[in-house]
Design brief:
Length: 102
């Protein structure tokens, strides 16, 4: 299910200014074209260039890393003071992109 949502996640992140602004382009039918292309091409390159055993190991390791990072973010976020702001800091953008890449 997460594969189907990847293009929308990229589109939303582009709208928020976290990733490249070009990814928020939509066609006349309100379809995020560039986000869909990126979310199709990058996994396709991985499938074509890597061995199946490497892909399985990367998927297992990536799932474990994402689980650990999510729990760390929840713990750290729990003890942070409440701050409201309109844009993300460079560190927040870097963290979000890193988690998405993993």
């Amino acid at each position: 299910a997460s594969v189907l949502a990847t293009s929308r996640i990229l589109f939303s992140m582009a709208q928020d200014g976290i990733v490249f602004q070009h990814l928020k382009y939509v066609s006349s039918n309100q379809v995020p074209v560039l986000s869909i292309i990126v979310s199709l091409v990058l996994p396709a390159l991985g499938i074509l260039l890597l061995d199946i055993e490497e892909l399985v190991m990367m998927n297992s390791g990536g799932a474990l890393i994402c689980f650990c990072l999510t729990n760390m973010c929840v713990i750290v976020g729990r003890y942070q003071p409440h701050v409201t702001h309109d844009s993300y800091t460079a560190a927040e953008k870097h963290s979000i992109v890193t988690v998405l890449i993993l």
